Amino acid sequence: LDATHAIAVDAMSALLRHSDSDPPSPPLQPPAPLSFEHTRPFLHAWFEREAEQREVARDELHRLSGWSYLSTAEFRSLVADAVHRLNPPIRDGAFIYELGIGAGAVLKTISSLHRIRPAGCDFSPKAIQRASEIFPAHAAAFRVGDIALPLSSKGGCAARAGAYSHVLSFGSLAMYLTHSEMAVALRNVAKLASAGGSVAVTHFIEADGEPKGTIVAPISRQRLRQLASAAGLTNISFHPMKYQGDRFMMTARGPRVDKSGWAGGPSPHTLPPRPTR
């Protein structure tokens, strides 16, 4: 586990920026043979272990979710740059849902920029516990769930459909899923987003891009656009990322329909309370 993590971190040392333009689309390729089931024990052990590190300060939570190769300032700049691309933008009081929340580093960074009502899910119980400690007033909005399962299925991210003006996945969807699992997770994104709400999913990479690190299934922009469109997302765009070499992010908007309703089974997901200063 440590050796694999070290290799992934070392690969980040020579990162270069990538052009925002779409390259010529290569023929569609079958997904990589490594599946999420094969990587699940590694990922679960990694994130469970890191969430237990109590000596990590709250302004360094990114170190608990695989971003330890970035300084605190670099991570904050990376998140701020990605969030800045959301359209419509985040406003104070916004409901934000993150698929693959980890220890809450991304939402904590956003909360330093805006007063938000955060929610999210992660397959690591210890990561969810840590995120709940970071946002105690919103703890009920954080749940253990697998982003690669439909929202309403057993083990999925039980949450309220159409309730979130912004839906994010910072690395988890793009890095740790196969293409078929990405398709399911993107449908979850579309269901969670309010009508016309904004979406950001980060850390995709093409087959010839570097660094791949622990990314399970590289994907072309053409294929990703197909999956996102099939999920119901609109206004799809791709952007480079700071400090991430050839890795790129996708922004989009939710379907322009009213999806209000419960997607998580018989127990309604309580919306986060309004924040206090």
Descriptive notes:
With 277 residues, this protein is an alpha/beta fold. Helix content is 31%, strand content 19%. The strands form two sheets. The protein has a seven-stranded mixed β-sheet, sandwiched between helices. The protein has a two-stranded antiparallel sheet with strand order 4-9. Helix 5 links the parallel strand 2 and strand 3. The longest helix is centred in the N-terminal third of the chain and has 16 residues, at 36-51. The protein is globular, with a radius of gyration of 17 Å. The termini are far apart. The model is unreliable at 1-37 and 260-277 (pLDDT under 50).
What's the short story on this structure?
Helix content is 31%, strand content 19%.
Instruction: Provide the gyration radius in Å.
Output: 17 Å
Which regions have little confidence, pLDDT < 50, spanning 5+ residues? 1-37, 260-277
The strands making up the biggest β-sheet line up spatially as 3-2-1-5-6-8-7
How does the major sheet shape up?
7 strands, mixed
Oligomeric organization of the protein chains = single chain
Give the helix proportion (percent range): 25-40%
Series of H and E elements: HHHEHEHEEEHHEHEEE
| Count of runs of 4 or more consecutive helical residues | 8
Q: Give the percentage of residues in beta strands.
A: 15-25%
Give the distance, in angstroms, between the N- and C-terminal Cα atoms: 41 Å
Shape: globular
Mean pLDDT: 81
Q: Which structural category do the helix and sheet elements fall into? A: alpha/beta
Number of strands: 9
